């Protein structure tokens, strides 16, 4: 199974050139059963990355383009009156797929954004008092334009907290960009990709990730990080218990991808910026700079 995971990462690297760490973090997020937020300017490959992952994992994929006039019913679905049955029947919306790309999520109003909250947390939606289960597995990859761009609505903290990780892709290196210029269009390359891990195999990997061992000393280090964010003057608000669980889950997935059955402090450090940066919001969007005081001042247990 680990060989298949390595092949999947290599296949993704062939599409998203020069972004091995970002790809690894995205796969780590899926293995930890989390949702992913990609924040960057248009045109750097956010949509391409989500489509690539869906293709490689064999997941039913749906892109939802968020706009200022999109309504919750456009995302979740709605009840439609059936004259023949003389009753209302629920017509599922585009949300009912295994992987959802919520494209430019911060261009939608808060009302439309909130339509994803229950889906992301509970893996279900409620319409007119009736609860509908979402497919398994279920992932949301959302893209977000920088907040200074025209026509954006900042995501509230409650929405941001539903994303296990936030990453940025950034501009490609000179060599990677030359390969892009000389190569085929990315959507053509994606069509040639083969499924590397099926959804049942993904479920097996997720179970294996949850079984990765975290020693008491590792948990001491994790708690020290959490307590530091709550007591330090660097941050207006510290990490929540849910953030701590997210950090542990991501660290387990990172260790598993390195073919280890126990978590090291280096695993926590590797995923810290992606997991904690958007939750701490200590000014700016540079996650590495946001968590730098933690890595510098919290001693490893």
List keywords for this structure.
301 residues, Helicase, Ruva Protein, domain 3, 5-stranded parallel β-sheet, two-stranded antiparallel sheet, 14 helices, 9 strands, globular
Model description:
Helix 13 crosses helix 14. The longest helix is centred in the last third of the chain and has 17 residues, at 241-257. This protein has helices at residues 2-15, 20-31, 46-57, 72-76, 110-113, 117-122, 157-160, 174-182, 186-191, 199-210, 216-231, 241-257, 265-280, 287-297; strands at residues 35-39, 61-65, 77-82, 87-92, 99-103, 124-127, 130-133, 139-144, 163-167. Strands 2-5-8-1-9 form a five-stranded parallel beta sheet. Helices cover 48% and strands 15% of the residues. It is α/β, with parallel strands linked by helices and 301 residues long. It folds into two domains: 2-205, P-loop containing nucleotide triphosphate hydrolases (Rossmann fold, 3-Layer(aba) Sandwich), CATH 3.40.50; 211-301, Orthogonal Bundle (Helicase, Ruva Protein, domain 3). The mean pLDDT is 88. The two termini are 32 Å apart. Strand 6 (124-127) and strand 7 (130-133) form a beta hairpin. It contains 14 helices and nine strands.
